[in-house]
Amino acid sequence: xxxxxxxxxxxxxxxxxYLVETPEGVTIIDAxxxxxxxxxxxxxxxxxxxxxxxKGVILTHGDSDHIGFAERIRRxxxxxxxxxxxxxxxxRGGHKPANGKQQMRLGSLLGFFAYGLxxxxxxxxxxxxxxxxxxxxxxxxxxxxQIIGLPGHSEGSIAIYVPTVDAVFVxxxxxxxxxxxxxEGPQPAPFTDEPDQAIASLRALIPTGAKxxxxxxxxxxxxxxxxxxxxxxxxxxxxx
Length: 240
Ligand SMILES: [Zn+2]
Fold this sequence. Notes:
The protein is 24% helix and 24% strand. By secondary structure, the protein is an alpha/beta fold. The strands form 3 sheets. It has a 7-stranded mixed sheet.
């Protein structure tokens, strides 16, 4: 689906993958589940593009619901996959710290796993090769994506600010739909390694002034980054 002329999303509010288009080609943010591959191909076709136009895939972090087709596009089509150094081993199938207690509603959780099952999420293909990125870098990819450190959900979580589409892609730095409870609106994301750090990290997004805040899970937010961060901070306060 098209969020704006050069900004597309595949997947849904359960798991989302984003495409940024410029005359130079396409940058993909996150790689969903393996089964999002077909949706990727048809979205590119609808844009009058093909896999050959994809110049890079940037992962917001290394969790399995974000790396789905990354190894496939890298291995079969030579597309570089970028991930923060702090999450590179996670993207390669390395250890992930255990999470604390989660408040969950069974229906929403089942919805997530049912969707994951349909999209091949239970057979994760880890990366064998990645390009490591760091805070403050601007990548030489369509849209000129800028890397913002967002540690908390995982050590190497990042946000990606793309000025050409006025959007910041936040991965699981926040969510607009809690995958476990189904609650909507900007709020802290579940399965977070360091919840307090994750909230504090969001301040770094504000200077972008981006209109779009695009999470890995939940509806696209077009109400501006400042309002989104304020809403997450408020939700975190009331949860205390
Ligand atoms: Zn996720």
